[in-house]
Amino acid sequence: MTQRARNWLLLAPAGIWFLVMLIIPLTVVFIFSFGERAPSGGVVLALTVEQYANLPARWAAFKNTMTLAPIGTLSALLIAYPLAYFLAVKADPRWKTILLVLVIVPFWTSILIRSYAWIFLLGGRGIPALLEWVGIEGLRLINTPFAVLVGIIYGYLPLMVFPIFVSLDKLDKRLLEASSDLGAKPWKTFLQVTLPLSIPGIATGCMLVFILLMGEYLIPALLGGGKVFFVGNALVDLFLQSRNWAYGSAVAVTLVVVMLIIVTIYMRLISRLGANREDVSIM
Questions:
Q1: Domains in the chain, please, with CATH?
Q2: What predicted TM-score, i.e. pTM, was given to this entire model?
Q3: CA angle 8–14–16, rounded 5-degree value
């Protein structure tokens, strides 16, 4: 067997899985998006762009998704980076494993249970009641964009922490010592050495969290109370309740296209930052 044949044989399982689980479903959804809703629900194959012309009717869902998903990703990054930095650089090695386990602990319970816990905390008998006791009255937290933002940050924070931790944990500490010996202040060492070398972890964490948030359904449904819709909620309504598969397919295709555009721009930006990282490594 030639090397080329062996390579194709090794790639075959992943390629078949990719074809069956991604390419074919996306192709079917793309075809459905040009159809029409059947009288009893479902789809009738056709060749029309009527469904795409009706996309503005779901503008609120797209606006909420395109607003809260980037904000949630950035907020998770701002919280996760100091935590990952502490775990990788500052924490006592004897306690590092235990601290990492504590970061994982939320994943041991269902996201549904954790979301219900936040419903209580943000509801009338939770944090608002405590604030009312100290004199701050009339504050509503549940069923608001803030509640959804808190839920998505809490739910996806570990996915941001671990890639950054791995990137920082592999950091050559001698570079930090050399920077200090050359007279650089700690903040300058962080900006010119630590941060550029941790870009791969930041890029991976942001990508994981952002892509998952773009399709999020459960947290907006529970903490948004039907008032803060994501595109995922719109798709559930269109496919399972309204049974308008053609319109739902058009919304899904549009979401995929938007995500591809954003991810492409993001990866180009990361590649430019990666060039600076290579310069730091050479130095």
A1: 58-282 (1.10.3720.10)
A2: 0.87
A3: 85
